[in-house]
Amino acid sequence: MNFALSIAGAMSIAAALYGSDALAEKAGFAEAVDDGNLASASPSESSSVEISGYFRTRGEVLYNFDLDRGLLASGQPLFPVPAGDPSAQALRSANMRLRTDLRLRAPGSGLSVVVRTDLLDNLTLGSTPNLRGGTPAASPGQEAPVQGFRIKRAYGEALLPIGVLSVGRQGSHWGLGMVANGGDCEGCDGGDAADRISFVTPLVGHIFALAYDISATGPLQVDHSGSRSIDIEPTDDVQSLTFAFMRYHSEVARKRRGRAGRVTVEYGAYLSHRWQDKDIPSSYLGDEIRIGPNSIVHRGFSATATDAWFRLSTANLRIEAEAAYLRANVDQGSLVPGVEFYDALTSNQFGAALESELTFSRLTVGLDAGSASGDPSPGFGAQPDDLQAAPPFDTHIDNFRFHTDYRVDKILFREIIGTVTDAMYLRPHLRFPLADASGAKLVFDAAAIASWAIEATSTPSGQKALGIEFDPTLRYETRDGFVAALEYAILLPLGGFDNPVSGLDARSAQLWRLHLRFPF
Questions:
Q1: 31-to-23, 24, 313, 384, 397 alpha-carbon distances in Å
Q2: Which residue among 32, 84, 301, 397 is the one 20 to 30 A from 423 at the CA level?
Q3: What is the dihedral of CA 493, 497, 503, 509, to 10 degrees?
Q4: Inside any domain, residue 37
Q5: Is residue 136 part of a domain?
Q6: Closest CA to 487 of 5, 83, 62, 145
Q7: How many angstroms separate the Cα of 366 from the Cα of each of 30, 359, 362?
Q8: Residue 135: per-residue pLDDT
């Protein structure tokens, strides 16, 4: 029974923190109270609707992402290969998304409702052909996808005399987005959301917040009216409680202070605890059995996350860092009722990320770095087949995983491994505007990423060196927000991806991507 996959997901808990939407700053809950006051949430005199969003489309070519290093010990390639010819090198695809953010303000009060919807969310172009002709080749066009409309967030806000109360499904973002990431960045594909009740208030120059999350419930049963579902076993609910504080300035305030020659120091921290008493594995494993007393497993799950964030900025300098420690315990890891393990599963995970940039005239340079704790079990633990625990012999899951929307490269961590985990990296980068006129600019970005594994046993070859990647980008931006970016990347894999059994050395991989963004 592959129970470790479920436990690994639970142990890598994301911080339950406050949503950043496209209508506000991305500093988590700080958008509710800007610079220590409630001006940004002041009551409106009449009802209003604020709309923003974008249409995004991306086309890409992935070349040799299996690194020509042969099969892994599992018998699978390192990355999917063309089905008709596994020796072929190139995979091609394109996708699109239409995102809309709405804020509906009630007249004469501090009440508002926020909704985020994604249409055709990362839908692959050409993936829904109309089959009236019998075959895809005879398709007259595309069908509407069955699940093309997704509501990502929907919550209400109430401005109270002492703070802001929010209830509903809210975005979760904190600091750099290393652990909790709202998915608001231009190239983000996912994003965290939580069913939450939160209260945020400014006090003594800081922002304080308390949140309660209903992280998971079930199994559910439809009531007699057929109009709603009822949670028929409360003891298996997963709940989270978070306390946070932050010293925060808006982007406008930071720029104003920078022009005045002042240094801006911001910081924050949170403590989040999640717990579950019992569990009903059959409710989510798809087992065709009747749910009753004999299907309940004592889980005894508890997890605590702590995270600290810091940012220092001037007119031409930014240094920003985030560090997190996650600790979890599962008294009983079995997914089979009546079958129990003697030892509890435990987890101790640590991750940290640093970003910096310094501007000289028109040139901006910087050095980023990061580290995610590892686990000595084979594999990186980022994919379903990389199980990091195997009771009763191995009861530890210690590999920290960066959020998949926290991007440091274009190939290795983003595509091949899936995220930064069981690894460390250094990332020097630069940005230089090639042209800036008539409300548009052409910018050249480049970064180099060198990476190593924390645990040598996690790599396919048993060596720590992972690779060196070069990521240049040519980006065109207009004053109204239109973006056209041409991206290239080349990964030079090192010994960690060699295949000593077959005597094969890993070979380079390349990526080409065209990214278009139409905001409104």
A1: 9, 6, 19, 36, 35
A2: 301
A3: -40
A4: yes
A5: no
A6: 62
A7: 26, 9, 14
A8: 83
SS (H, E, C) 209-227: EEEEEEEECCCEEECCCCC
End-to-end CA distance of the chain: 49
288 band by pLDDT with thresholds 50, 70 and 90: low
> Could you tell me the two tokens for 38?
């409630």
- Give the whole-angstrom CA distance, residue 254 versus residue 242: 27
Q: What is the pLDDT of residue 43?
A: 60
Which CATH number covers residue 271? 2.40.160.100
SS3 letters for 349-377? EEEEEEEEEEEECCEEEEEEEEEECCCCC
Instruction: With beta carbons less than 8 A apart as the criterion, state whether 349 and 12 touch.
Output: yes
Q: Is the four-CA dihedral 475, 476, 477, 483 of positive or negative sign?
A: negative
Q: Which amino acid is residue 137, in one-letter code? A: A
141 found inside a domain: no
Parent domain of 259 = 4-127+146-519
Asked whether residue 133 is domain-assigned, the answer is no
Q: How high does pLDDT run on average in the chain?
A: 88
pLDDT of residue 37: 38
Tens of pLDDT along 60-110? 999 999 999 999 888 889 999 998 888 889 999 999 999 999 999 988 778
Q: CB–CB of 219/295 below 8 Å?
A: no
Rounded CA separation 308/357 (Å):
20
Tally of domains within the chain: 1
Q: pLDDT tens digit string along 207-218?
A: 999 999 999 987
Segment 124-143 mean pLDDT: 87
Q: What is the DSSP string of 485-509?
A: EEEEEEEEE-GGG-BTTTTB----E
Could you tell me what percentage of the chain is helix, strand and coil, using 3-state DSSP and rounding each to the nearest 5? 10, 50, 40
Q: Could you tell me which residues come within 8 angstroms of residue 214 by beta carbon, excluding any fewer than 6 positions away?
A: 195, 196, 237, 238, 239
Let me know the angle formed at the C-alpha of 329 by 193 and 14, rounded to the nearest 5 degrees. Answer: 20
